[in-house]
From TrEMBL:
Pfam families: Flavin_Reduct (PF01613), Flavodoxin_1 (PF00258), ODP (PF19583). In the N-terminal section; belongs to the zinc metallo-hydrolase group 3 family. In the C-terminal section; belongs to the flavodoxin reductase family. Its cofactor is Fe cation. Keywords: Electron transport, Oxidoreductase, Transport. SUPFAM superfamilies: Flavoproteins, FMN-binding split barrel, Metallo-hydrolase/oxidoreductase. Residues 265-403 form the Flavodoxin-like domain. Mediates electron transfer from NADH to oxygen, reducing it to water. This modular protein has 3 redox cofactors, in other organisms the same activity requires 2 or 3 proteins. The keyword Transport applies. CDD domains: flavodiiron_proteins_MBL-fold. InterPro entries: Flavin_Rdtase-like_dom, Flavodoxin/NO_synth, Flavodoxin_CS, Flavoprotein-like_sf, Metallo-B-lactamas, NADH_oxidoreductase_modular, ODP_dom, RibonucZ/Hydroxyglut_hydro. This is Diflavin flavoprotein. Signal peptide: none annotated. PROSITE patterns: FLAVODOXIN, FLAVODOXIN_LIKE.
């Protein structure tokens, strides 16, 4: 059994609590893995969060899917007379949620459904008898529930949720974020008091759901920034109250991290019943885990100009399609035409899809790409009906295989670096090939703690153990250039992004430690608990060399904080700058 697997035997339940004025949360909880999709594979359970605002008018936000319908409605009835419910606000619509809505609306026929226009169209198609009860809203539309509960809506469409809608309540300053800022984890804790312990679950959730649509997530973050939110109320996991700014910062950094990857893949798809989209998500996860930026394109929602631009810029392309009436949907045929006419034939390609009977669309796409001399990065994936956990694992592995083949292809086609004209440039490039351990040097100025990022450190002596470090004036050199000055060298761990809190120079008034777990060393300086190891040092000798102070310090004490893990290294392209 995986170390991440939940072993509790607790039954599913609904946790109810007040999170603001006239506002309840109803968390439908399962302590076991709810579904088999990649996003749930941490197997720590999940919560389906719903919210009830009871002011002059009553609004229910995001009822859960059908796996919780019975226990949810039983608990909801303890807190609400269904005949008094005025509105149901939907962050998105899917078949699971429709099942709960059917039962709920049968008991509350007076309710008005509030949703985005794409969601309204989907609901009207599935339930034409509901048409008069559906109210479509757009960004900045408002709904006044009374007693200060003035709701404002934010349209946040993404390739995965074209009907995305978030809601802000001015009375409680709660932003109901639906699929943003969530995590698949089930605990008794309602809020994020111990937010550091949630980092792994939050990042995994982002990678699975949002990394392939990072561009649209950044747009959503900008829309959220205009609200003075004090809490995020997501669809899954704890309510975000204590790490609001940190979590928002993380989302921005994770989006930037995706865009900064050297290689990118355009993942184009359409999905009639959701199965092809599930395959796309699994393939995307395999690519992301192997350091490839995925640009997810739902061809049903993306115009041809955007498809053309992304296809031209990407290093590889993967296209997925359902089969409808023996053919690929029109949107996929259009996307395939764009690929064949604009994408270089040297780009790696891939094909996948789901079908009910024959699967002709997959064969059509594969043959068209092969006839045009595109090379396939994995064997085409054909899935009949709903994918199984084994098939999704194969999709992840296919994504990983595609990433490795793409890297090999890129390496073979990358021209040798052209020698620069001047000797100075060649020297700078050569010096830049010196690598060093990425560290944070922490110092203390009376009651103020400071820290700077550096990689200019090396071991200088064995007995006593000593190090040599080069420090600039703007890196708190005044606290390290005298004999007996103290500092701590925190050696960072590869894959842990502590460096984002520190810069190469110290800024007056800046406190990079506010979001980090620390402890105080014997010498009074701070130890970063997320470091791989640390050394407590005392300065012995110093000399001014060019634009740096060269410091020799002996190591008074040290400790390895994590026995497993690699030292973070810094690679530079030039010796004339960091």
């Amino acid at each position: 059994m995986s170390a991440n697997t939940v072993t509790t035997n607790r039954k599913r339940d609904v946790q109810v609590a007040e999170i603001g004025k006239n506002t309840l949360i109803l968390r439908s909880r399962t302590w076991e893995r709810l579904k088999f999709e990649v996003e749930y594979s941490r197997q720590k359970g999940t919560t389906a969060n719903s919210y009830l605002i009871q002011a002059d008018k009553k609004a229910l936000i995001d009822p859960p899917g059908e796996s919780f319908t019975e226990i949810y409605l039983q608990e909801l009835a303890q807190h609400l007379d269904f005949t008094t419910l005025d509105y149901i606000v939907l962050g998105h619509v899917n078949p699971n949620r429709r099942a709960t809505l059917q039962v709920l609306l049968s008991q509350a026929p007076q309710v008005t459904l509030i949703c985005s226009r794409p969601a309204a169209n989907a609901l009207k198609t599935a339930f034409p008898e509901w048409e008069s009860r559906i109210q479509a809203v757009r960004s900045e539309d408002a709904l006044d529930l009374g007693q200060g509960h003035h709701l404002t809506f934010v349209s946040v469409p993404t390739p995965r949720w074209a009907d995305g809608l978030c809601t802000y309540d001015f009375a409680t300053k709660i932003l109901y974020t639906d699929k943003f800022f969530g995590a698949h984890i089930c605990e008794d804790t309602l809020f994020d008091e111990d937010w550091k312990s949630l980092d792994a679950e939050r990042h995994y959730y982002f990678d699975c759901l949002h990394a392939p649509q990072a561009k649209q997530v950044e747009v959503a973050l900008e829309k959220f920034s205009v609200f003075a939110a004090k809490s995020y109320a997501p669809a899954h996991g704890p309510v975000v109250r204590f790490s609001l700014s940190r979590f928002t910062y993380d989302y921005r950094q994770w989006c930037q991290g995706q865009k900064s990857q050297e290689l990118s893949v355009a993942l184009l798809y359409a999905s009639a019943y959701g199965n092809t989209a599930i395959l796309a998500n699994a393939i995307a996860q395999g690519l992301i885990e192997n350091g490839v930026n995925v640009k997810s394109i739902n061809c049903e929602l993306t115009d041809t100009a955007d498809i053309t631009r992304i296809v031209e810029a990407c290093d590889g392309l993967i296209i997925g399609s359902p089969t409808l009436g023996g053919h690929a949907p029109t949107q996929i045929q259009t996307a395939l035409g764009i690929i064949l006419s604009t994408a270089a034939k040297t780009k790696l390609a891939g094909v996948f899809g789901s079908y009910g009977w024959s699967g002709e669309a997959i064969d059509l796409i594969e043959n068209k790409l092969k006839d045009a001399n595109y090379r396939l990065g994995f064997e085409s994936i054909r899935v009949r009906f709903t994918p199984t956990p084994e098939i999704l694992q194969q999709c992840q592995e296919a994504g990983a295989t595609f990433a490795q083949n793409l890297k090999k292809t890129k390496k073979l086609r990358t021209p040798r670096q052209v020698v620069t004209e001047t000797h100075v440039d060649r020297t700078e490039q050569a010096v830049g090939r010196i690598i060093g351990s990425l560290c944070v040097v922490t110092t203390r100025d009376e009651d103020t703690h400071k820290g700077v990022l550096t990689s200019w450190v090396s071991q200088a002596t064995f007995n006593p153990p000593g190090i040599m470090i080069a420090i600039a004036d703007e890196q708190n050199a005044d606290l390290m250039c005298h004999s007996n000055d103290k500092f701590v060298l925190n050696i960072l761990k590869e894959g842990r992004n502590v460096r984002r809190y520190f810069s190469r120079q110290s800024t007056l008034g800046d406190n990079p430690f506010i979001n980090l777990s620390t402890k105080t060393a014997v010498n009074g300086c701070l130890i970063l608990n997320e470091a791989l190891s640390y050394l407590e040092c005392t300065v012995q000798n110093q000399i001014k060399c060019g634009d740096r102070w060269l410091i020799y310090a002996v190591v008074d004490n040290g400790e390895v904080l994590e026995n497993e893990g690699l030292t973070a290294l810094e690679y530079r392209k030039s010796g004339s700058y960091y």
